[in-house]
């Protein structure tokens, strides 16, 4: 698809985003951008506003104010172009468990208008190490296998932007590592990736940049290492440190507080 962006312009540009639920403001003046070939993570305590931000980018909820541009297209003016420019990794509960893996892939390829030959389906399944599972029902797959199918579907139309809400929650270490490698491989092919996570290890391992969000506001944005380096001397971060060495989690706790959110 020809898009009005160049390689050097952000694929996703969110500016001054506000999201309200009735009188409660969940997202307050949030701005960030994600470039092609970049993995950007949204981190924050429970209820910080990560999913609300992601849902606004996905088009699932209408922001109260602010602009969202994807691949240069503005939601308000070109919503169909915006939707065609993004892929969303759906939760496994979004898929009908009685459909086979190959039926699900064909179904979503059809929705995006992507023709798939039987050979292409075999190649896709081989790419996610599920070549023997074409006729297995989705509900019979393990959590890690379901995640792989979900990721293939999210990128079947080669969207410039891929969105993932807590993609590795519930996966074992092996499946988590494998998913990180798949996310990095998407990044290396030039996709821009926006994900939410509660895992500091995930943020440090795969994210090129992160935003820490709390009470609906971004409190810092940078690479994980730069965020550690610029906050390591703050007394609240040193107080949060457990083993002498300052980690991203120490910075996160120092900046957002140790109290558990209700
Ligand atoms: N549909 C809704 N109606 C009312 N309030 C909502 C709704 N959805 C979310 N909220 C509130 O908005 C705030 C932000 O929620 P959101 O789900 O965006 O946070 P989050 O950072 O994704 O949290 P978590 O890490 O727990 O998933 C919370 O206080 C939440 O209770």
TrEMBL record:
One of its GO terms (molecular function) is ATP binding. It comes from the Bacteria. SUPFAM superfamilies: P-loop containing nucleoside triphosphate hydrolases. Belongs to the ABC transporter superfamily. This is ABC transporter. InterPro entries: AAA+_ATPase (IPR003593), ABC_transporter-like_ATP-bd (IPR003439), ABC_transporter-like_CS (IPR017871), ABC_transporter_ATP-binding (IPR050763), P-loop_NTPase (IPR027417). SMART domains: AAA. It comes from Puia dinghuensis. Gene3D superfamilies: P-loop containing nucleotide triphosphate hydrolases. It holds the Pfam family ABC_tran. Residues 12-240 form the ABC transporter domain. Keywords: ATP-binding, Nodulation, Nucleotide-binding, Transport.
């Amino acid at each position: 698809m020809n898009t009005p962006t160049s390689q050097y312009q952000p694929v996703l540009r969110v500016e001054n985003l506000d999201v309200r639920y009735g009188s409660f403001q969940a997202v307050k003046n949030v701005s960030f951008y994600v470039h092609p070939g970049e993995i950007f993570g949204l981190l924050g305590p429970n209820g910080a506003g990560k999913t609300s931000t992601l849902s606004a980018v996905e088009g699932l909820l209408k922001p109260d104010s602010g602009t969202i541009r994807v691949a240069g297209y503005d939601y308000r003016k070109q919503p169909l172009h915006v939707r065609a420019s993004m892929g969303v990794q759906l939760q496994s509960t979004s898929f009908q468990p009685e459909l086979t893996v190959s039926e699900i892939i064909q179904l979503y390829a059809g929705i995006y208008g992507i023709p798939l030959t039987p050979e292409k389906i075999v190649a896709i399944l081989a790419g996610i190490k599920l070549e023997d599972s074409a006729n297995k029902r989705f509900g019979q797959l393990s959590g890690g296998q379901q995640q792989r199918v979900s990721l293939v579907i999210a990128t079947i139309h080669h969207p410039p932007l891929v969105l993932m809400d807590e993609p590795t929650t519930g996966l074992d270490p092996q499946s988590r590592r494998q998913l990180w490698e798949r996310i990095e491989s998407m990044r290396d092919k030039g996709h821009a990736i926006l994900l939410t996570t509660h895992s500091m290890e995930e943020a440090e391992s795969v994210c090129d940049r992160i935003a820490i969000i709390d009470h609906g506001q971004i409190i810092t944005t940078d690479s994980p290492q730069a965020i550690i380096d610029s906050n390591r001397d703050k007394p609240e971060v040193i107080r949060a440190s457990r083993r002498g060495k300052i980690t991203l989690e120490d910075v996160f706790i120092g900046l957002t507080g140790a109290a558990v959110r209700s």
